[in-house]
Write a structure and sequence with these properties.
- By secondary structure, this protein is an all-alpha fold.
- Helices cover 68% and strands 3% of the residues.
- The chain has a two-stranded antiparallel sheet.
- A hairpin with an 8-residue loop joins strand 1 and strand 2.
- Helix 4 packs across helix 13 and helix 13 packs antiparallel against helix 14.
- The two termini are 22 Å apart.
Length: 296
């Protein structure tokens, strides 16, 4: 399947794929066409959102629709933050605080629990893991009423901790980190660290956490996006004057008339933090995954 390239009297050192093996590495032109079409179809709704956000309401019913951004973007963003019904600045701040705290907490506790389930021995481990997996099978909507009653008893209605505390750790995060830790961290590495005198938490912080960085990056990105886009629970527990960013956009839609440019401007501003987070952490995630693949 491979051809060895060697000089005179010298054993071959390089292998080059030939025959069927070469087909696994080379993509056909049709593959590139399909990828370009898929990317264009994925990006066009975002581009159209930006186009409408930078124009007036006339473009919504215009035929043919304009395909280039206009010059009303600054005015629309200004009207967005000045809108008395949206509380958009407060919504951005609340979403940023809630998403950051939930992401950091989820990555920390999920990685800690995942390490314990994957590498430590204690009574009831399998039963606890099955219980955590079972929580993933229960729809979030089924827990809204009892969770809301708990928030009322704690007096956390219309307070930001009601959006943060119930989601400080997730069953999916624990299961994901447990699966990754069981494969990525050899038992010999744990034993070597213990022989060197590391405590259990020291092993987690100095040995396990660096090895879990790719999975932690993926979990952090998914958690931030989910918390930022959460709508139903903040709608149930927060008042209109103390919203998250998704509730602020919903308040724009509940006005006396549909100002599409204002809603699209709000959606564009709400998407920007997600793009920044992906750009900042996406390269580290991909780099960590590639590093693990090369070592494997």
């Amino acid at each position: 399947m491979t051809t060895l390239l060697a000089g005179p009297g010298q054993p071959g050192k390089h292998a080059r794929p030939t025959g069927k093996m070469r087909g696994l590495w080379e993509a056909s032109p049709l593959t590139y066409v399909a990828l370009i079409v898929a990317v264009a179809m994925s990006l066009f709704p975002i581009y159209w959102m930006i186009v409408v956000a930078t124009r007036t309401n006339d473009v919504v019913s215009a035929v043919p629709p304009p395909l280039l951004p206009g010059g009303e973007g600054g005015d629309n963003v200004g009207r967005l933050f000045d809108n008395p019904d949206a509380y958009f600045a407060q919504g951005l701040l609340n979403s940023a605080i809630a998403s950051t705290v939930v992401t950091v907490s989820t990555v920390f506790f999920a990685s800690l629990a995942g390490f314990a389930f994957a590498k430590l021995r204690f009574k009831g481990k399998n039963g606890l893991l099955l219980t955590i997996i079972a929580t993933m099978m229960i729809p979030v909507q089924m827990g809204i009423i009892p969770l809301y009653m708990i928030m009322v008893e704690l007096g956390w209605q219309n307070q930001l901790q009601a959006v943060i505390v119930p989601f400080l750790v997730t069953g999916f995060g624990v299961f994901m980190m447990r699966q990754y830790a069981s494969q990525a961290i050899p038992d010999e590495l744990i034993e070597a660290a213990r022989v060197d005198g590391c405590s259990t938490f020291g092993i987690y912080w100095r040995v396990v956490m660096p090895a879990l960085r790719p999975a932690a990056g993926v979990l952090g990105l998914l958690t931030f996006m989910q918390t930022w886009n959460e709508f139903m629970w903040p709608l149930a527990v927060l008042a209109p004057d103390n919203p998250t960013v998704q509730l602020s956009i919903n308040n724009l839609a509940n006005a006396y008339f549909d100002d599409y440019t204002l809603m699209f401007a709000g959606t564009t501003v709400a998407v920007l933090p997600l793009l920044v987070v992906f750009i900042v952490f996406g390269r580290q995630i991909i780099g960590g995954i590639m590093e693990g693949a090369v070592k494997a």
